[in-house]
Amino acid sequence: MRFLTTDPAAEPSNVLYKRCTFDLRTGEQRMEEIPCRNLEDVLGGFGRSFQDLAERKIENAYCDENPLIVNTGLLTGSSAMTGMRTYFSGYSPIKGSKAGLPAAMWSTGSGKFGAKFKWTGLDELIFENRSEQPVYVVIKETDVGPQVELKPAEHLLGLSTHDKIMVLQKDYADAHFAAIGQAGENWQNNFMGAVALSTENQLKEKEDKCRFAGRGGMGSLMGYKNILALVAQSSDKMKPLSEAVKKVNVNVIKGGGSARIQPIRCGGGGGTWAAYDVLQEFHAVPVNNFRPQGNAVPEKLFRENVEKEYDIKSQACYRCGITCHNNISEKNADGSKGEFLAKFDYEPLNLLSTNIGVHDAGQAARLIQLSDNYGMDAISLGVTISYALSYNERHPQATILNGATFGDYEKIRELIIQAGEGKLPEIGQGSMRLSESLSETSYAYHVKGLEIAAYQPETNPGYAWASAHRWWLIV
What sign for the dihedral angle of Cα 254, 258, 263, 268? Predict the structure, then answer.
């Protein structure tokens, strides 16, 4: 971005951002510097993209007129510690209105891809229409500015999110990556495809430690457009920290909002996983499709119980001092770290374990890993599966799908694999469509087709409004 003013709130038109509009059908692209219309344009992310989406009348998410907008926020790639976000926006295949129209949606993730994207010199990339063949997109810095080009991607078809990133890393040094999995490739039958964003930990350790822009099916929209991955290649351009930014960063690390999710060794609760302990005090941990039973069952997945059998290591994203996620690995006989399994963040953990009747940490980790590798939104996936299990519990003589019930790990695993491979649209298209097809909608936990997160809805009535109007949220 170029600032021609010291007061962007009063003079937004004196702030310019670099946009590339790429026509996937023809290969034509338009690179331009755009003056900001208002403060939302200056701030970037979905504040800018939703203004553009509002100008389009889209009746089907899977149409050429529905753009995929990739952009960053004002602080992405800056010395502000948590400036790492990449935003993906478009009309959602899974969320819609009661009239059946798709809803405008955004999804965001961290990792280092956003910073690399910003450092190429590009602020926004809009994909129009659809490629006839599978492609990946390379965004790179050059002496004359950012350059965007398409590359054939047949060799990436059928690979997991992690494997796509590992293949691309071999060809592109000093780069980071965004990729879809098989779920996004099978967009016709899977509306909950996510976009995986590479991390420094992943590229260095070769373990599948992606971050995700998971909500709303932006990975499925990316798959519809036949884009399998994005590559952002640039040198690092981190500026020296000013004293003012240092103070802000320290406040972010030590402030109440983040202090409680810092590692236990730093006095925190040990990441978002610690929500288990807090919610269990009120018996508010979702169990068996959001039906807490007032017992100690959720405590089986308390950290103190899991670490008896598994190796747990807290890690942070690139340049982030909030060490909030926990890597779960097998523990060797000598107590050393064994095979990496998955990250434990509260929502994927709960919705792919306790809320579907699975209380074994190793089984939970493998289900989370499957969801991540296939590139699915763990929230939509877990909640849709919990609906199916609940239906089967209510109809033992007329079960659906493979007859899976709460706690049946092998059959639940089979549902995830089939959904990820596009063979089970009943799961892949979400709980709203499944429940409507069965004429039993009262225990399907979604808002306008978007499944709710891992909190009892009666404990936070405002959450439904936040899901219905996701554009209100700022991440």
Answer: positive
From 341, 330, 328, 130, select the one nearest 223 (Cα to Cα): 130
Q: Indicate whether 83 and 157 sit together in one domain.
A: yes
The structure tokens 């095979």 sit at 339
Domain, as residue range, for 386: 255-472
CATH number assigned to the domain comprising residue 450: 1.10.569.10
- The pairs formed by 431-434 with CB atoms below 8 angstroms and a separation of 24 or more are 431/380, 431/383, 431/384, 431/387, 434/384, 434/387, 434/388
Q: Count of H helices and E strands in the chain?
A: 18, 18
pLDDT in tens, the chain (475 residues): 999 999 999 999 999 999 999 999 999 999 999 999 999 999 999 999 999 999 999 999 999 999 999 999 999 999 888 888 999 999 999 999 888 999 999 999 999 999 999 999 999 999 999 999 999 999 999 999 999 999 999 999 999 999 999 999 999 999 999 999 999 999 999 999 999 999 999 999 999 999 999 999 999 999 999 999 999 999 999 888 889 888 888 888 787 777 777 777 767 777 889 899 999 999 999 999 999 999 999 999 999 999 999 999 988 877 777 777 799 999 999 999 999 999 999 999 999 999 999 999 999 999 999 999 999 999 999 999 999 999 999 999 999 999 999 999 999 999 999 999 999 999 999 999 999 999 999 999 999 999 999 999 888 778 777 777 654 333 2
Separation of alpha carbons 161 and 226, rounded Å: 15
Q: Are 439 and 430 in contact (CB under 8 A)?
A: no
Residue 244 lies in a domain: no
Let me know if residue 44 belongs to a domain: yes
Residues 275 and 177 in one domain: no
Q: What is the CATH number of the domain that holds 216?
A: 3.60.9.10
Q: What is the DSSP string of 182-194?
A: HHHHTTTT-S-B-
The reply to whether 245 falls in a domain is no
74 and 179 both lie in a single domain: yes
Q: Output the six-digit token pair for 410.
A: 């092998």
Say whether both 283 and 369 belong to one domain.
yes
Number of domains in the chain: 2
Is the same domain home to 12 and 57? yes
Burial of 307 (0-12, 13-18, 19+ CB in 10 A): middle
Displacement of CA 18 from its chain's centroid (Å): 25
Report d(CA 173, CA 420) in Å as an integer: 30
Same structural domain for residues 184 and 279?
no
Q: Decide if 40 is inside a domain.
A: yes
Cα 38 to the chain's mean position, in Å?
28
Residues 280 and 310 reside in one and the same domain:
yes
